[in-house]
Design brief:
Layout: H1 2-7, H2 9-25, H3 38-43, H4 46-49, H5 54-62, H6 71-84, H7 88-114, H8 117-129, H9 134-138, H10 143-164, H11 168-182, H12 191-200, H13 214-219, H14 221-240, H15 252-271, E1 280-281, H16 289-308, H17 314-327, E2 339-341, H18 346-364, H19 371-395, H20 400-410, H21 415-429, H22 432-445, H23 450-462, H24 466-479, H25 484-496, H26 500-513, H27 518-530, H28 534-547, H29 552-564, H30 568-581, H31 586-598, H32 602-615, H33 620-632, H34 636-649, H35 654-669
Antiparallel strand pairs: 1-2
């Protein structure tokens, strides 16, 4: 029996890891998308939403959308949409499957390089079950993490095969997989340095007397060229998209201090993975000096120690500089976004620390008589604790409300969490007053918070307080004049107040900044239609429909504009298309009924008026128009009933008054 187990132990370990990961992570099948990047990457991204098409594939390789260049990640999301639609559970499970693959690949790689079976298992288990890795797996928008890591692992595996037998085709495979990794997430730019570390240990490729391995560096020149290209593209894409924060916001001194403390904090979170949050606010210049000095001491001490012990304990050197190097692109020296640090950045980097622990602890205890018992018991306790904490942490990712409420409990001065919680309250619960309260809390922390100002305006608009909303949009635009979302919403508020010409100015600005802003096209068409400029309005609706053919509002509004131009057949076509997309919109049923009635198709018109009233029984206009259609068929009593209903709902409805008087006279006449 033992011989059979030993023969198939690799397979047995893989099965156990897969079952354990699925048991812990399966709960995310019932999780929703969250309102932080999931909308940008999946739910509101038209190119993703349309799935895999030739045009969208070209877009993926030519866009710097969302301040990132990662075409394979875009293609991955498109494939999810093509396979599963907008079912969030399957998008999350695909991340889990990549996490499983990454865990198994890590085990194969370490076991093949070192032959240390149990230590390789422990590193892989720490990688699989550590709570810091929940963010990369449970967050749909972080597909780039698990996908790029998949290619990271495959690149290392291909490199090991190349080292074992240096053939050109094997080297080309390394290059190819590395390119795929960079096209998934540019954070992999440090991979060539990791390969140099692995050359030292455990691959033992350094020549004994050579201090600088020029031949190994020369061998990786093509990889470094790819790194340079990827770094340049990424910097310009992120700078043009506004993701790279200028020195005016965070000085170089502040960035260095935050980077040093973050290196130390990640180690602390690895050891004590509690109070984890989706957003950690940047401290700016408020970091205590003692905290920076402690971080500097810790980093210097460990660095000096691992260099001192490099020959005796080479895995410490490799593990430590794996950790330092893999974090370097995202440590904050080039500040991306407004966070100080992020759990997702540890997905690959912590492997270095796991290696230090898995090889270092057994070596420290190798002379202790109870070493095996201690390691077995402590491993069981550690992994069990991590699995429990990971299960709990996954629960916080169920939806946006739970996620941000937890973030606010475990962090302070978190303007980003307040703002995003407000968005969740407004969109998911329609609790606009609570949402506004959180937006104001965000502004107390950061007065120039553009999104908070804009979101206050949106929430006030949802309450019908358009006049009160307008100043907040102007405040947002004073801070950030090129904020398309604020321009569009300001235009919408102005249009609601009848200030259509002012609204048009802001819709034009929104479209100048973002030529794919569907709502701005639709709103521009509506503003022009209100001014009876139908010839100008109609092209805007068509532009919206070219971008999104199933855009309900554009079909409905285009139909109304065409109808007012007397193009009834075209109008009917767009009303029918709108109802195909959304069969339960009472206004579109009413619009279609009016258009059909004008063509004398009374029975069809009556059907749609009745449908409108089924959906909204107190729809005065539908009652009035149904009354007109019934009167045309000679059904006077039924017509009178619907005119009376229209007047009951709206006593000041002049047209219904006139129609009622007319049919009463008609009834008396006969």
């Amino acid at each position: 029996m033992n011989k059979i187990i030993n023969k198939h132990r690799d397979l047995l370990v893989c099965i156990i890891l897969v079952i354990a990961i699925l048991a812990i992570f399966w709960q995310i099948k019932n999780h929703d998308f969250i309102n932080y990047d999931d909308n940008v990457y999946v739910t509101d991204n038209l190119h993703i939403y349309q799935g895999l098409t030739v045009d969208n594939i070209i877009w993926a390789f030519t866009t710097g959308y969302a301040s990132n260049y990662h075409p394979l990640t875009w293609l991955s999301h498109m494939l999810d949409i093509s396979l599963f639609g907008l079912n969030p559970g399957w998008h999350h499970l695909v991340n889990v499957f990549f996490h499983i693959a990454n865990t198994l690949l890590l085990f194969f790689i370490l076991n093949r390089m070192t032959g240390a079976f149990w230590r390789s298992i422990f590193v892989s288990a720490l990688f699989a079950f550590h709570p810091l890795h929940v963010e990369s797996v449970a967050w749909a928008a972080e597909r780039k993490d698990v996908l790029s890591t998949f290619f990271f692992m495959l690149t290392i595996l291909a490199y090991i095969l190349y080292v074992e037998k240096p053939l050109l085709r094997r080297y080309l495979l390394v290059l190819f997989l590395f390119i795929l990794g960079l096209l998934s997430k540019p954070m992999l730019v440090t991979l060539p340095f990791v390969l140099l570390l692995l050359d030292y240990w455990p691959l033992s490729r350094f020549e004994l007397k050579a201090k600088i391995p020029f031949h190994l560096i020369w061998e990786k020149i093509p990889l470094f060229i790819l790194v340079a290209i990827s770094s340049i593209v990424t910097f310009f894409v992120q700078q043009s998209g506004g993701a790279v924060k200028s020195l005016e916001l965070f000085s170089l001194k502040v960035r260095i201090a935050n980077a040093l403390v973050s290196y130390a904090d990640y180690i602390g979170k690895m050891i004590y993975p509690l109070n984890l949050a989706v957003l950690y606010p940047h401290p700016g210049s408020n970091l205590p000096l003692w905290q920076v000095l402690v971080a500097v001491f810790l980093l210097l001490f460990i660095s000096v120690f691992v260099i001192w012990k490099i020959k005796k304990l080479p895995y410490l050197f490799v593990g430590w500089f794996w950790y330092i190097g893999m974090l370097f692109p995202v440590i904050g020296l080039v500040q991306i976004g407004g966070q100080s640090m992020a759990d997702r950045y540890t997905y690959i980097s912590l492997i270095g620390l796991f290696i230090m622990i898995s090889w270092g602890v057994p070596d420290i205890l190798k002379k202790w008589h109870y070493q095996r018992l201690f390691l077995s018991v402590s491993t069981g306790i550690i992994l069990s604790a991590l699995m429990i904490l990971t299960w709990i942490q996954l629960g916080y990712w169920k939806d946006s409300l739970i996620l941000y409420e937890h973030a606010l409990k475990v962090t302070s001065n978190n303007d980003l969490a307040h703002n995003n919680l407000g968005v969740a309250l407004a969109k998911l619960k329609k609790k606009y007053d609570e949402a506004i309260s959180h937006y104001y809390k965000a502004l107390q922390i950061r007065p120039n918070h553009v999104k908070a100002h804009t979101n206050i305006g949106v929430a006030l608009g949802e309450k019908g307080m358009y006049k009160e909303a307008i100043p907040h949009y102007y405040k947002a635009l004073r801070i950030y004049p090129d904020y398309a979302y604020a321009h569009n919403n300001l235009g919408f508020a102005l249009a609601k107040l009848g200030r259509f010409r002012e609204a048009i100015v802001h819709f034009k600005e929104a479209l100048r900044i973002n030529p794919e802003d569907l709502d701005a096209y639709n709103n521009m068409g509506n503003a022009l239609s209100h001014l009876r400029r139908y010839e100008e309005a109609i092209p805007y609706y068509y532009k919206a429909l070219r971008i999104k053919p199933d855009y309900f509002e554009a079909h409905n509004n285009l139909g109304a504009a065409l109808f007012r131009q007397g193009k009834v057949n075209e109008a009917i076509s767009h009303f029918r298309e709108a109802l195909r997309i959304n069969p339960n919109n009472e206004k579109t049923h009413e619009n279609l009924g009016v258009a059909l009635g004008q063509q004398g198709r009374i029975d069809e018109a009556i059907f749609h008026f009745q449908e409108a009233l089924r959906i909204k029984p107190d729809f005065a206009e539908a009652h009035n128009n149904l009354g007109v259609a019934l009167a045309q068929q000679g059904k006077i009593k039924e017509a009178i009933f619907h005119f009376q209903e229209a007047l009951r709902i709206n006593p000041d409805y002049i047209e219904a008054h006139s129609n009622l008087q007319a049919v009463i006279k008609m009834q008396n006449k006969y």
